[in-house]
UniProtKB/TrEMBL annotation, chain A:
It comes from the Bacteria. Residues 249-278 form the 4Fe-4S ferredoxin-type domain. InterPro entries: 4Fe4S_Fe-S-bd, 4Fe4S_Fe_S_CS, Helical_ferredxn. Transmembrane segments: none annotated. Keywords: Iron, Iron-sulfur, Metal-binding. This is Dehydrogenase, beta subunit family protein. The keyword Nucleotidyltransferase does not apply. The keyword Metal-binding applies. Signal peptide: none annotated. GO terms for molecular function: iron-sulfur cluster binding; metal ion binding. The lineage of its organism: Bacteria, Pseudomonadati, Thermodesulfobacteriota, Desulfobacteria, Desulfobacterales.
Automatic annotation (TrEMBL), chain B:
Residues 2-44 form the F420-non-reducing hydrogenase iron-sulfur subunit D domain. This is F420-non-reducing hydrogenase iron-sulfur subunit D domain-containing protein. Keywords: Iron, Iron-sulfur, Metal-binding, Oxidoreductase. InterPro entries: MvhD/FlpD. Pfam families: FlpD. The keyword Hydrolase does not apply. One of its GO terms (molecular function) is iron-sulfur cluster binding.
Length: 316, 57
């Protein structure tokens, strides 16, 4: 994956120089290891800031909302599906975009890496093909990337971009025989009391920092319901009921839209796996409406169209 | 899908009910209201997603 960096830089330079785009959105190396940051570049001489490796875990589509200029952007599978969703929801138009597609082999879970090195301070990560080497003061360890993927990447079945103007490399083989919903099914099998216990415990440490919301391209409301004060829909403290209400509502606002890109989990300062909420909705969207978000720019999402044969067994 | 999500996190099936009743369907309204009341009564008082008043020491 690391070898794509040079191609991305060349492409961005050309696009900016030729005036095909006003800005180019990509990633740059973070100030600390494993924390690559998004970057918006407008000067063709500055494209060397651009970087790509298996630690680009944020969702760049987040930076497209309501922009008016012409934009070059890099997109792997899930990011491209969010771009499609953005186009469908009129947050950006296809004509404004020049999409540089990346066939993705997954993003490394930085928390898993930290666990594997006993939470020692990581000073450097180098990628070599499907392996990577983590080093710091007095240690250096090499791991298989495939064993350190984020949980969403491990079960991802749409690694190639669904929409692009050019690709940096030929498509990768999509994963087969993975069950994206194994974890959801386990929870479904519990009784209500256990379920409630599971989710209450899961969000116990939530700080209500809203990083999960901010990192998600779907959350572009000018004023989020949690920030409204007239009326105030939900309490602002870390009262467990308020926190649960926030999580239920955040997830539900993503129903039929979430691409399981994992940005929300990636940014949580306390490591809450809040994809457990959105994944249930993704599973139901697939089961009831044969729908996976962002795969088709010409199909309206199930929750904004009515069809006489919609699933409605729950209506009395 | 909302019902699915809420039941997934532990709200008991039967507590959340949906129906579509026209203003002209008085008997249907009575029936459904009775059904809902019965199914919620059977479950007993809500245990989850209740906000308690702040405890002041
Ligand atoms: S979810 Fe899929 S496309 Fe997105 S980063 Fe992971 S493997 Fe790549
Ligand atoms: S809810 Fe999370 S996984 Fe889903 S699109 Fe938003 S950031 Fe990505
Ligand atoms: S990022 Fe984590 S701590 Fe912050 S609001 Fe979301 S779940 Fe809570």
């Amino acid at each position: 994956m690391i070898e794509y960096t040079a191609i991305i830089r060349d492409t961005a330079k050309k696009l900016l120089k030729d005036g095909k785009v006003d800005v180019f959105i990509g990633y740059k190396k973070g100030t600390v290891p494993m924390m690559n940051e998004p970057v918006v570049i407008s000067d063709p001489e500055k494209v060397d800031t651009l970087h790509w490796d298996s630690l680009c875990g944020l969702n760049l589509c987040n930076y497209l909302t309501k922009r008016k200029d012409k934009i070059g952007i890099i997109a792997n599978g899930c990011n491209s599906r969010n771009i499609v969703t953005h186009i469908l929801e009129n947050q950006i138009s296809r004509e404004q975009l020049y999409i540089v597609g990346i066939p993705c082999t997954g993003v490394i879970d930085h928390r898993a890496v930290l666990r594997a090195v006993g939470n020692k301070e990581v000073l450097d990560v180098q990628e070599q093909g499907d392996k990577f080497t983590v080093s710091g003061n007095g240690f250096s360890e090499t791991f298989d990337k495939a064993k350190f993927l984020r949980t969403n990447c491990a079960v991802c079945t749409h690694r190639n971009p669904v929409i692009y103007d050019e690709m940096v490399a030929s498509p990768v083989k999509e994963q087969e025989g993975v069950d994206p919903f194994e974890d959801v099914k386990k929870i479904e099998a519990m009784d209500p009391e256990k379920k409630w216990g599971f989710f209450t415990k899961m969000i116990e440490r939530c700080l209500r920092c809203y990083a999960c919301r901010n990192s998600c391209p779907l959350c572009y409301c000018p004023t989020c319901f949690v920030d409204e004060s007239k009326p105030q829909w939900v309490g602002k403290s870390i009262d467990p009921t308020d926190t649960m209400t926030f999580h239920i509502m955040r997830a539900y606002h993503c129903a039929g839209r979430c691409t399981d890109c994992g940005a929300c989990e990636r940014v949580c300062p306390v490591g809450i796996p809040m994809r457990q909420f959105t994944k249930k909705l993704n599973k139901d969207a697939l089961e009831y409406f044969s729908w996976e978000a962002g795969l088709n720019p010409d199909a309206r999402p199930p929750l904004d169209v009515y069809k006489p044969d919609d699933y409605n067994d729950f209506v009395k | 899908m909302l019902k699915g999500l809420l039941e997934h996190i532990g709200i008991e099936p039967g507590r959340l009910n949906f129906s579509w009743i026209s203003s002209a369907e008085a008997t249907k309204f009575v029936d459904v209201a009775q059904q809902v009341a019965a199914s919620v009564k059977a479950l007993g008082p809500a245990r989850y997603l209740i906000k308690k008043r702040a405890e002041v020491a």
